[in-house]
Specification:
Elements lengths: L12 H4 L7 H9 L3 E2 L12 H12 L12 H10 L10 E5 H13 L5 E6 L3 H9 L3 E8 L4 E2 L1 H7 L4 E7 L11 H14 L2 E5 L25 E6 L11 E5 L2 H14 L5 H8 L6 H21 L12 E5 L1 H4 L5 H12 L1 E2 L1 E2 L13 E5 L4 H13 L1
Parallel strand pairs: 1-11, 3-4, 3-6, 6-7, 7-8
Antiparallel strand pairs: 2-9, 4-5, 8-9, 10-13, 12-13
Length: 386
């Protein structure tokens, strides 16, 4: 149907159709209640490195307050490249972005055209589907099956076709805590090779992998490596979500295009903060994983004693729990979250925003355990008292 200029909407169809992410109410509850917040992913652990703060202040006082080159601070790019398992050239394969969110949009804008299909696993981080729609592409959802949240190879293969240009992955996963295995990545590599598809993988939780596992990047896997885009961030590993320091790692041909898109979107991110992050020692990933695993263990103990069911968390900083043993299916996750907040003063995230269809998330909640031990213990005290 065509509309006259007077009848035309003042906003674009693709922006008007965007959901609010589903977490708006949770953010508001976190800000307005005196609650133990285990909902939002903002880190309470680890702590921001004190020397990084001092380096940022020093850089500002020294006058480093203007534009940095769009590709990012040279030393920070080198530190990022050194932290990755795959051999990486910091000059031709790393771009510093304004957080992982901008990195995801750059990767999508440079990889797909309007009308193309992008495969995405569900449940998954709620921004993925919205980002795909906002760039004009079409999300093609593939279900992950509870309780271990694995894909069915036949269902995944059926999602690929001649219109598929990319797949968006996340390992370790938000919200499920799954870490993709070599077998799963090899299967994905076969499909991506067959259909000439770009694999865009959010690996922002790569520092937190548990129980002897190791993070396996898409850049490490033959068949995926040459068509891979790694989206990374310092937000969780360095506990600086407000600094907006993300990055993209990909081959030189894609990097050249990504940098042009990046220059036209944000141009760059804060110069003194980049300098600070590049000039301090970075935490040992093994130590970081061990510290987070202790918090994982405590969270799993607390919420299993409440009666929730879940697969053991393999990586990341979230527990994705089935509340139906408590509710007997009579209460949806949003109602459960509100009632728990009123009764105990503990805030969780309802599961519905993470699914392709909200009703599929009615029996799940997400619990953030990247918190100080004292915070988790206080949540335990309140929950057990109630």
């Amino acid at each position: 149907m065509t509309h006259s200029p007077a009848e035309r909407s003042v906003v674009s169809e693709r922006s008007a159709g965007l959901a609010d992410g589903g977490l708006t109410e949770v953010f508001m509850l976190a800000r307005t209640r005196d609650a133990i917040d285990l909902a939002i992913g903002t880190p309470g652990h680890p702590e921001v490195p004190a020397d990084m703060i001092e380096e940022a202040a020093r850089a500002m006082r020294a006058g480093h307050n203007q534009y940095e080159h769009p590709m990012g601070d040279a030393l920070l790019r080198r530190r990022i490249a050194e932290s990755l398992s795959a051999a990486t050239d910091p000059d031709t394969e790393i771009t510093v972005t304004a957080g992982a969110t901008e990195g995801l949009y750059i990767a999508l804008l440079a990889s797909v055209d309007p009308g193309d299909e992008v495969v995405v696993l569900t449940p998954g981080f709620d921004q993925f589907a919205s980002a795909i729609r906002l760039v004009g592409a079409v999300p093609r959802f593939v279900p992950l099956h509870a309780p271990e949240w694995r894909f069915d190879p036949a269902e995944l293969a059926a999602a690929f076709n001649s219109r598929t240009r990319a797949i968006v992955l996340n390992t370790p996963s938000n919200p499920t805590g799954r870490v993709l295995t070599r077998e799963e990545l090899d299967h994905l590599a076969e499909l991506c090779e067959r259909w000439n598809v770009t694999a865009i993988c959010d690996e922002v939780y790569s520092n937190f992998v548990f129980d002897g596992r190791r993070h396996l990047s898409v850049a490490d896997v033959p068949g995926l490596a040459e068509r891979s885009v790694v989206v990374g961030s310092l937000s969780k590993s360095h506990a600086v979500t407000g600094w907006r320091l993300g990055f993209l790692r990909t081959d030189p041909v894609r990097t050249e295009v990504f940098r042009r898109v990046h220059a036209l979107t944000t141009l760059g991110t804060a110069a003194p903060l980049q300098m600070a992050a590049g000039r301090v020692d970075w935490a040992d990933p093994k130590d970081a994983s061990a510290q987070m695993a202790r918090r994982r263990d405590l969270a799993q103990d607390i919420f299993s004693r409440m009666g929730m069911k879940f697969a053991p968390v393999e990586g990341g900083c979230f527990l994705f729990a089935d509340i139906s043993p408590i509710t007997a299916g009579q209460t949806d996750s949003l109602t459960f979250v509100r009632e728990l907040l009123d009764r105990c003063g503990v805030l969780l995230t309802p599961g519905f925003p993470f699914f392709s269809s909200p009703d599929l998330g009615a029996q799940y909640v997400r619990i953030a355990f990247n918190r100080r031990t004292e915070t988790l213990r206080e949540a335990e005290r309140r929950l057990m008292a109630a």
